[in-house]
Structure formats: structure tokens, C-alpha cells
Amino acid sequence: MFGEPTKAQAKAIEAVNESFQLGKSLIMPGKAISELHAECSRVLESAGMGKYIRHGTGHAHGIMIGAAGREEMGELRPYNHGTIRPRMVNSIEPGVYIPGEGGFRHSDVMLVTDNGAVCLTDFPTSIPF
Description:
- This protein is about 25% helix and about 15% strand.
- It is built from 2 helices and 5 strands, in the order H-H-E-E-E-E-E.
């Protein structure tokens, strides 16, 4: 044990957890990828952490090379205007990185089904203190 988190750390992990759970609930066929990212980012921005976001909400899994176009494969980024499709496998991993406090991120891998998604990993998001 390393003691209690600072107020800033507790606020960050709470915001990341909220964004993370939202992302897991939103990944489903037909969902606009850029909108999924935007909704998860709004949670972090509403908590005052927008300037600490350093990457997208998640990414595709599978074979990816630079020339293959990660966007077409499901990168959860603001510039990807594709849609979520059945059989896609994506991580949901919003995060914030606050100088002097730390980095805060969870990641689960989601398999998109015909009418929703199944979590393939599902690790706990609480931190015992």
C-alpha cells in the first residue's frame, strides 16, 4: 500500500472510470466512431481534464500496419467517421496524464456483436487503499 490518493488523483480516476464505463456501454453496431470518442472525451472535459487527454478513446485489435489504415479498422478517434460494425474488436481505454500526479487509464477489450458488445477482459476499476 502506498497511502491514500491525492484529491487530484482521486478526481482523475473517478473521471476516467466514468468515461471508461460510458465507452463500454456505447460500443455497438451502427455507432459513429467519432461520436463514441466525443462522448467519452466530454466526460473528461467536464471534469476539467481535457488538456490532459493524450490519445483517443481506444483502438482496433488485429492485424494493423501503417499502410493498412488503422482508422478503417476501428480507431476510436475524433477524425474517424466510420461506424462500429459486428465482429470488430476494440479496446476502450480513455485516459488522462497529469504532470506531478500520474497517468490514469483502464483498458478492456470489447467484441462487437450483432446487437451490442461483449467484454473479453473485464478487470476491476477500483483501487483498494
